[in-house]
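Example (one chain per record):
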Amino acid sequence: MTSIEHKKEIQSAIQKFADQPLKKSAIALFAALGYQSDRTIEIDSVKDFCDQFDPSGLLAHARSQKSNWESIHLLFQLTDEELSSNVSLFKENSVKASLLQSYVFFAIELKAGDYPRSTLATITRQINRIFPMPVMVLFKIDSHLSMAVINRRQNKRDENKDVLGKVTLIQNICIQTPHPGHLNILASFSVAELLARKKPASNFDELHAAWEEVFNVELLNKHFYEELSNWYFWARKQVSFPADLEADEDTRNATSVIRLLTRLIFCWFLKEKHLIPNHLFDPDAIADVLNTVADAESTYYRAILQNLFFATLNQPMNANNKIVRQFASDGDFYENKKQYGIKTLYRYQNTFREPNHALALFEDVPFLNGGLFACLDSEDETGKVQYADGFTRNSRKQATVPNRLFFAEPHTVDLSEDFGDAKKKKSEVRGLLHILHGYKFTIAESTPVEQEIALDPELLGNVFENLLASYNPETGVNARRQTGSFYTPRPIVDYMVDETLKSYLANALCKAVPSTTVADAKTGLDILFAYTEKTHAFSEEEIQALINAINAC
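Predicted structure:
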């Protein structure tokens, strides 16, 4: 089965959730991914589940959101028998002993409502607390699915126990029309793709490690950046921007393309918040509103993107019968002298098939009042406009960004000279809109305890930093130093924050209670910081250390 056929099979399995019972459709989806087993237990109700698996009442806590559970189903338990014989993910006759011995797959339907990522992560964590083996949870909420998997590692103090770590989610998979980015992630999670790895898993620990690699935001960001950088080097050879403020063509094109990428990716996050309509980035919809989208023309960049950036996001909305969002007048200098140098009026009216309806494309987009979308064309001390962005009615000063850079289908180009790498002689590139549509974006940044497998706003800094270094004649490090654009990876930031807080609190505690040692204080704080990650009860040593720290207060 080809990759395209496999994704179609996964998509079909997802769409069946619309009219099939939850358990049946969930089992079919996991079967399409290559995970199936006959080991299951029938659960008649949420009460039945709690009676069987939670006699101590851990799920009674409000964090479990049990009152919002419509139903829960134990789909199956996956053991090494299924994986080594039927599915053959583990190498035959080489299943090694590991801390994790099986996985249990559940499906839960929640009442309709808004459940943020943290809520689904907490429910997953609570369910995992009542099982000795890791649990994967598939949530169905109205017309969307979410899948959650939790990281479990060996307890450093007791090798026979494990500790709950970060919960990772594939969130808000649309049942009717699954996003291509979600299909890509699910396909990567499937047995078929895991089998294709250079080193297939030989036990559940290695299987879990493989899942973690798939469910890795940093890896997703890397793949996205690699594809984006190919596009960047391909694009900057084809664009043209005014030379008024930067005489060097390579530097001018490089910085202009970086600005374009930064602005457009920011708009993509606004689209995720439904502040910018999808039709502005839909190739079919664009073809319907512009006179031409021919490869060599620059109609999309000028008529859609420049008008979006400078005349929409940088211009207040019409209000109180005051019309401010309007087209600049066409004509010679004397006919439109009053609008000379004004960069917040729409341009390229004749590019639209129906010019009178063109403004309706942008009318619901808000005014951001930020510098990112301010046009860099500006007047000098003599009153003459110096062009950088090229947002103008003067055809000699207009920017050129061919439509092919946004709409082209995948093809190979030679980027070996750009990268200084012979392996880049046949690099695959595709239109920028195809790239952005191929990934799932989220406006919620990851935290140390939960993350969504999607591109979050942090990647804007990474894109800017890495591409900015590419055109500097010196080394990339020097380029970043000169611009001050260093971006510290999130895990390092999380660690630095935790350690700073622990150090401050430990010193404050020792100062307030001189009998407390720094070692005791830090031990107690380590336990407190790790509390949310615990699967099993504290050991006696941990409890005593915590008591000592509390007593010292």
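Caption: Strands lie at 69-79, 102-110, 135-141, 144-154, 162-174, 378-379, 385-386, 411-413, 427-429, 450-452.
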